[in-house]
Amino acid sequence: MGKEHKYLKKFKFTSNPNCHCRCCCPCCRCKCKPPFLPIPPSCHYLVYVTDAGQLATPDNRVSVIDTATNTIVATIPVGSAPLEVAITPNGAFGYVPAFFSDNVTVFSTATNLPIATIPVGIDPLGVAISPNGTLAYVSNHGSNTISVINTATNTVTATIPVGLQPQGIAFTPNSAFAYVANENSNSVSVINTATNTVIATIPVGIRPRSIVLTPSGQFAYVTNENSNSVSVINTTTNTVVATIPVGTGPVGTAITPDGTLVYIVNKGNNTVSVINTATNTVIATIPVGASPDQVTILPDGTFAYVTNQVDNTVSVIDIATNMVIATIPGFNGPTGIKTGTICL
């Protein structure tokens, strides 16, 4: 290459495309170094809690917990008496049914501000977002229907009749089916999301409240509040294959990301039951606050957060030890709870 420039004499060149530069220093033995990778953004988890208030004095906000500090860092105005919340899979938006307003508030997690209000049926209660992020299903407790919301347009595209007083909703991992707990029919409706029709109705215990599916989609766990039990549904056959005794008045439920543990909130005796999904047995019972309602588990499977409606607190459970490691104050009749992720 002719006469070398004096500043290049101590460097050797390489054509290896995996190197981050085309020269390397002999003092490093000319080892090719891997390319520089962008530093990943700083991400951490937020937990969104609906403050429903009390029957005589309903509230209208969602409180946001920063899990790095376990403190409330923001509040979001929504409709009257919000009971549940769902966060889109990409973490960008939250959907909150307002029981007394007959609508759903959509908020941006980036700004913690409402961006849309969607009219739905009577007394909307439960909400779930399909794993592919395209649909929000809202259970209308007073009109015995499911409102189907297109999340791209935030409009209702269908209304599906189900059982009496529908509440909890869960989608299969492929978004093909939705399972709905019908509180006053003692049943679970199975909806084909492509046709928006009920394809099966499964008898369960008395007053089913919430439902969660395993990550594989093979089983659904349904809390039966007045039976003090959890029904396990095989989603291939849509039949109950096990019934698990738990605490008094089970309502909320969540599953760990690896699918090994299901956490059941027992409203009647202020505890959380932990179910081993391999054996379908309770392996731990955790005392929490007064009148606990719902539970969410962080995506990394480290902690569970439980709303305590009468205490106006949220209990934080260490999943490794199944012990409460923090109690967060400052809520007003907290009920619904879900996890989101924020990246700075």
Q: What does this protein structure show overall?
A:
This is Triple helix repeat-containing collagen. The protein is mainly beta and 344 residues long. It has 2 domains: 8-37, no CATH class; 43-343, Methylamine Dehydrogenase, Chain H, CATH 2.130.10.10. Helix content is 0%, strand content 54%. Strand 28 (313-318) and strand 29 form a beta hairpin.
Summarize the structure.
The protein has 344 residues and is mainly beta. It has strands at 12-13, 23-24, 43-53, 58-66, 71-77, 86-87, 93-98, 103-108, 113-119, 124-129, 135-140, 145-150, 155-161, 166-171, 177-182, 187-192, 197-203, 208-213, 219-224, 229-234, 239-245, 250-255, 261-266, 271-276, 281-287, 292-297, 303-308, 313-318, 323-328, 334-343. The strands form eight sheets. It has a four-stranded antiparallel β-sheet with strand order 5-4-3-30, with no helix packed on it.
> What is the C-alpha radius of gyration, as a whole number of Å?
24 Å
The helix/strand class is mainly beta
In CATH, the topology of the largest domain is named Methylamine Dehydrogenase, Chain H
> What is the assigned CATH homologous superfamily of the largest domain?
YVTN repeat-like/Quinoprotein amine dehydrogenase
- Share of helix among residues? under 10%
Outline the secondary-structure elements.
Blueprint: E1 12-13, E2 23-24, E3 43-53, E4 58-66, E5 71-77, E6 86-87, E7 93-98, E8 103-108, E9 113-119, E10 124-129, E11 135-140, E12 145-150, E13 155-161, E14 166-171, E15 177-182, E16 187-192, E17 197-203, E18 208-213, E19 219-224, E20 229-234, E21 239-245, E22 250-255, E23 261-266, E24 271-276, E25 281-287, E26 292-297, E27 303-308, E28 313-318, E29 323-328, E30 334-343
Antiparallel strand pairs: 1-2, 3-4, 3-30, 4-5, 6-7, 7-8, 8-9, 10-11, 11-12, 12-13, 14-15, 15-16, 16-17, 18-19, 19-20, 20-21, 22-23, 23-24, 24-25, 26-27, 27-28, 28-29
